[in-house]
Amino acid sequence: MRVIERLKSTKKPLFSFEILPPLKGKSIQSIYDGIDPLMEFDPAFVNVTYHREEFIYKKREKGYLEKIAIKKRPGTVGICAAIMNKYNIEAIPHLICGGFSKEETENALIDLNFLGIDNVLALRGDPIKTEPHFVPEKGGNRYAVDLVKQIVELNEGNYMDENIEKANPTNFSIGVAGYPEKHFESPNMKADVKRLKDKIDAGADYIVTQLFYDNQKFFSFVDACREAGIKAPIVPGIKPIESLRHITFLPKFFNIDLPSDLTDELEKCSSNDEVKVVGTEWAIQQTKELIEYGVPCLHFYTMGKSPTVSNIAKAIF
């Protein structure tokens, strides 16, 4: 079932979450172990991230350097198919611009369509570590809006090969990312919302936000979207803080702020267990306020770990 239909028809907030593919060489059982404890909350969908290839350079004879592509977390499409088969819930693969030509993207979409996967999250993706900024693949999509347009073309039965006649259209529901504290590359929030509107106008159905910890920033973001003419459902992304490392890592990596009330409590913690208690309680209060606000769904970033999210879900669902 297309996720947009669930979001528009629900009378109470849905529950969903995101998982990471296991590292290369690991079993899919780790995925099942993370999903099983959350099934009692009737998840509407599960997002599965995609991690593009990284590159390493190995020295060869005569001083030459050989560029070798490596993949740390393969398996997104296979995991989605396995989740849908095992749990009978919608699995949504992340589809990114980086590392794919448009032809490769079209082929990936065809595979997804054949597997009965009707939902995708269209993202530009991050630059690889050896790039100072994002560089699209030769012949690939530069921006998420370009990727959205390509998916819409397939939904209309228009393939890259113009010789294909009477092509069957796909039926993807397209999600895109939103940033309550703006994307770090945007000069300001107004410009960021404009880029988001471009994606919706191009054919995206709904928005899932990056994690945040200050609900007022989410409310302001929603207001800015509505004022810009964006009518699509906006799903808040929640990530409970679970370790001392998160206190510095999350603001730096995701370019977000932590509210002073939260950091005041976190600074009193001397162990990960104490941080987890504070982070869980903050997330419970945060999600309760979001429910009162009327969000269509609460989307949790589990990072493959379900106990904390399960405790939060028990308190709010």
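That was protein one. Protein two is written in the same sequence-then-structure order:
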Amino acid sequence: MLNKKFGKNIDRFVSDYVVFDLETTGISTYSDKVVEISAIKVIEGKPVEEFSELVNPQCHIPAGASAVNGIDDEMVKEAPIFSEVLPRFIEFIEDFVLVGHNIESFDLKFIYRDSETFLGKIPDNDYVDTLSMARKCLPEMSHHRMTDLAMHYGISTEGAHRALNDCRMTRQVYELLCSEMKLLESGKKVIPKCKYCGRTMKLRNGKFGEFFGCSGYPNCRYTEKVKRV
């Protein structure tokens, strides 16, 4: 629903949600524009409906952005502008929890900014950010980009950086992260800790390959070998 307040980051399992993703002209949440928005509605863990539209940003799409997402000026010249697409997206998400990767720092800022501009209010849906979830559930990983997580779980990254493909990837990763969280909460999975300072150990790469290093580096320099079965 549209409101004047922001939703909350709940970072937990929900069976009904909408996973969404944006592609933009750049990384500035102040000046860049949306060029694609996609979403998948999930009910009881099963995808039931998709939403996906290209958006005319009414400006040139920089070559750097096109190199990442494959979207150029020619592709969006006949597409609707975001003031037309956004209300359809708001209608699609209803009051479902929103799920996405790095949405707290990126995607939601575009949604809030443009909702305020075009509609005078913002969607107050609670949300789950799979980036913060992954950092909690898989602190041993050195990077938590969506492609890193997908490869960690053996999920195909083909078509990454187009919004709908990223939604499909994120949905699968979210479901698996929820399983990780359940294992942590039950005590069946234990995150490695530094035996000197108690901080979480992180998987790192060095001159001689992978190793576990204390997250307290450089104050704590404890390391462990990675044991491969």
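The chain has a mean pLDDT of 92. Keep this in mind for the problem set.
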